[in-house]
């Protein structure tokens, strides 16, 4: 993009001056609309989510045996929903801002198998591909007990095929672990910011890890090239995959069930605000889609990004989506939030979801580390830095009277609100690594 175009872009979108200056910004989307009006742009619907849910149920007997940690949930990969009242107090003190509603956390950070939100989409896409291959080969029927996938004939069958993916870390973890367990040859192309322990963990599972000195975009491109050279290699495309997106979307109906069990009401008088860390956009986009399908216009989804990697905010705010990268504005895309270190947002997710997402905000690495320390002290919960990005969202919502007025939410309605921070990763971080995070947050 030429200098002249950048100048024009900044002239048209003055907020970009602060974005370029790496300042923390908040932008509530004035173009957000109803589910009914926004849904046609997604190109997916309730039946697609239902089909994804049924597929995961078919695989549950296999997962329960292949991964003993899922036995307690009968092979369903799901996370806890908890109240975080001590953290609510800590936030009120930190920001000198009362929080009127209830503050909760969805612990996708501790999902079984790979310890992050990526266990939803990544594992689902691998299972979808495995099912397709096995059915086409006449080895499997949808009516079968899928625990038969543990038999040697299936492992031998899947060994003929390979899977490739580009990742900053957590998606690679979920895809690598699941693919290797089934028997696929799997390569994870990892960007420079991927953590060393994640690479080691993958290698322990027999995964081929290909390392790059460049960022996420290069890792994805190289993974795609490898797959193109081998007709038996399946490339999992984090930027454009509807299958990944649907794997994440099942979270909506699952959360609805958890709310019902806890007696939590979501309606016009009891709104739900959900704060989702965003990298390329597939995970938070899919979850947000599932939430909108489950709760309709009573749920409000807000994305959080690092100041150094605000790709979705940039893409949606400018209307350019994947036609612009943060590097085009001179932003370096270097952040401690490795899972969010993405320079160019998913064009599919941005275009599909832009009318259904209420807002976007950015925060610095230092801010994430500070929140990491506060959560550890307040609740004894330890997350990786990127998973804290959603934590200040409640403050931004409660401070923005113009946004609340647009939603026609008054003080009494806000007092009935549920604020849900989506914790995205950290459950598998080694003790030494977590100690280093905490030491850094104490500086």
Task: List its salient traits.
443 residues; alpha/beta; four-stranded parallel sheet; 20 helices; 11 strands; 47% helix
What does this structure look like?
The chain has 20 helices and eleven strands. Helix 8 (170-182) links the parallel strand 4 and strand 5. The strands form two sheets. It has a seven-stranded mixed beta sheet with strand order 1-10-9-8-11-3-2, with helices on both faces. It has a four-stranded parallel beta sheet with strand order 6-5-4-7, sandwiched between helices. Helix 8 packs parallel to helix 9 (196-204). The longest helix is centred in the N-terminal third of the chain and has 21 residues, at 46-66. By secondary structure, it is α/β, with parallel strands linked by helices. The protein is globular, with a radius of gyration of 21 Å.
């Amino acid at each position: 993009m030429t200098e002249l175009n950048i100048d024009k872009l900044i002239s048209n979108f003055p907020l970009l001056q602060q974005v370029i200056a790496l300042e923390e910004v908040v932008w509530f989307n004035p173009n957000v609309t109803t589910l009914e009006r926004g849904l046609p742009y997604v190109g997916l619907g309730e039946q697609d989510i239902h089909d994804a849910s049924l597929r995961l149920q078919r695989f549950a007997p296999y997962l329960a045996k292949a991964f003993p940690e899922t036995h307690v949930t009968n092979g369903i990969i799901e996370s806890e929903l908890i109240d975080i009242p001590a953290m609510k107090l800590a936030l009120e003190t930190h920001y000198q801002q009362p929080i009127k509603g209830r503050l909760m956390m969805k612990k996708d950070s501790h999902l079984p198998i790979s310890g992050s939100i990526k266990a939803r989409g990544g594992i689902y896409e691998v299972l979808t591909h495995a099912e397709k291959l096995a059915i086409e080969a006449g080895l499997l029927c949808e009516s079968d007990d899928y625990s038969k996938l543990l038999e040697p004939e299936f492992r031998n069958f899947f060994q003929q095929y390979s899977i490739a993916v580009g990742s900053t870390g957590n998606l690679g973890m979920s895809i690598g672990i699941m693919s290797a367990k089934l028997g696929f040859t799997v390569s994870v192309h990892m960007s420079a910011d991927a953590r060393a322990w994640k690479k080691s963990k993958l290698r322990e599972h027999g995964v081929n890890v290909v390392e790059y000195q460049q960022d996420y975009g290069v890792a994805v491109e190289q993974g795609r090239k490898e797959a193109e050279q081998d007709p038996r290699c399946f490339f999992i495309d984090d930027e454009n995959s509807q299958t990944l997106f649907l794997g994440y979307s099942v979270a909506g109906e699952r959360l609805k069930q958890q709310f019902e069990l806890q007696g939590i009401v979501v309606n016009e008088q009891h709104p739900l605000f959900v704060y989702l860390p965003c990298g390329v956009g597939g995970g938070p986009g899919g979850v947000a889609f599932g939430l909108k399908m489950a709760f309709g216009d009573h749920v409000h989804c807000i994305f959080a990004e690092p100041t150094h990697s605000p790709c979705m905010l940039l893409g949606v705010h400018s209307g350019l989506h994947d036609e612009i990268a943060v590097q085009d504005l001179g932003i370096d895309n270097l952040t401690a939030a490795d899972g969010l270190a993405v320079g160019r947002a998913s064009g599919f997710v941005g275009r599909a979801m832009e009318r259904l997402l209420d807002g976007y905000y950015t925060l610095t690495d230092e801010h994430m580390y500070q929140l990491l320390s506060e959560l550890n002290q307040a609740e004894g919960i330890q997350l990786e830095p990127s998973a804290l990005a959603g934590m200040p969202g409640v403050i931004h919502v409660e401070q923005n009277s113009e946004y609340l007025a647009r939603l026609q939410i008054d003080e009494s309605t806000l007092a009935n609100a549920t604020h849900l921070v989506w914790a995205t990763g950290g459950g598998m971080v080694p003790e030494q690594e977590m100690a280093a995070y905490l030491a850094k947050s104490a500086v």
